[in-house]
Design a protein that fits this description.
heterodimer, A: mainly alpha, 2 domains, 10 helices, 64% helix
Chain lengths: 179, 79
């Protein structure tokens, strides 16, 4: 059981919050556990869930790449909850476990990733392990692959999801199958 | 949360409940997580406050001189 008990479904009566929780359930990230913990602060929960769902599943960067990055970040954060969740949409559009695992490993040498994908994977890995490596030259390289809007989309996605993973780790939340 | 997340265990949450409601603890946790994530991202972008402490609008170069071009990080300080 997580350190903060999630609300029961019937205790959540705000229709907008119910819809956001449902959207998370359908995507698979976050599932109802994290959403119902957040629901203890309902106004905050709506803002957080909007941002999580928008940054992960919308925008102009491939959702499957974001899903690989999200799992890599959860491993950096040491968070088993978000590390154990998977996007149903990414799986449905061809993302498999082998590629997800490769994104957390030696992806620089992996021919399955393009140069643009490798840059994005390095961006996420270095952000919280070696942020001093993300300098002007690093961003200049990123601009050869992505627009400035896409780089901001990636950076904000990385920052937001890593932050929520850092919080989830302290909650002691576990993914389905380990509860 | 940022430096020693293993210290935030069940006993830590029990201690928090002596001071805050569950709603407030969730609010604090999400706020702290948000700041952990975003401040590192912002640090890589190398931007500085638009205004000097006296309220003047200043260039990014001057702001960097005022506020420090390399803000210290807690993670680095703890190594």
């Amino acid at each position: 059981m997580p350190h903060i008990e999630p609300l029961k479904a019937e205790e959540i009566r705000d229709p907008e919050l119910q819809e956001l929780i449902q959207r998370g359930e359908e995507l698979g990230v976050p599932d109802a556990l994290f959403s119902r913990i957040l629901a203890r602060a309902p106004t905050l929960a709506k803002a957080v869930l909007h941002a999580m769902l928008h940054s992960h599943a919308e925008g102009n960067v491939d959702h499957r790449l974001k899903e690989i990055i999200r799992v890599q970040l959860a491993r950096t954060a040491g968070d088993p909850y978000f590390g154990g969740l998977r996007s149903a949409r990414a799986a449905k559009t061809g993302l498999d476990e082998s590629r997800i695992a490769a994104g957390s490993g030696r992806f620089e040498d992996d021919p399955r990733f393009t140069a643009a994908e490798k840059w994005a994977l390095r961006y996420a890995r270095e952000m919280y392990l070696n942020p001093e490596k993300i300098d002007a030259a690093f961003y200049a390289e990123g601009k050869r692959h992505y627009t400035e809007a896409q780089i901001m989309e990636l950076g904000a996605f990385i920052a937001f999801h890593y932050g929520m993973q850092a919080f989830a780790r302290t909650l002691g939340a576990q993914p389905p199958g380990k509860r | 949360m940022a430096l020693n997340p293993d210290r935030i265990d069940a006993a830590f949450y029990d201690a928090l409940r002596r001071h805050y409601s569950e709603e407030e603890i969730v609010e604090l946790g999400a706020f702290i997580g948000f700041n952990i994530g975003y401040h590192t991202f912002f640090g890589t972008l190398k931007f500085y406050p638009m205004f000097a402490p006296d309220g003047r609008l200043v260039s990014q170069e001057e702001s960097a001189r005022i506020y420090g071009a390399a803000p210290g990080s807690l993670a680095a300080a703890s190594k």
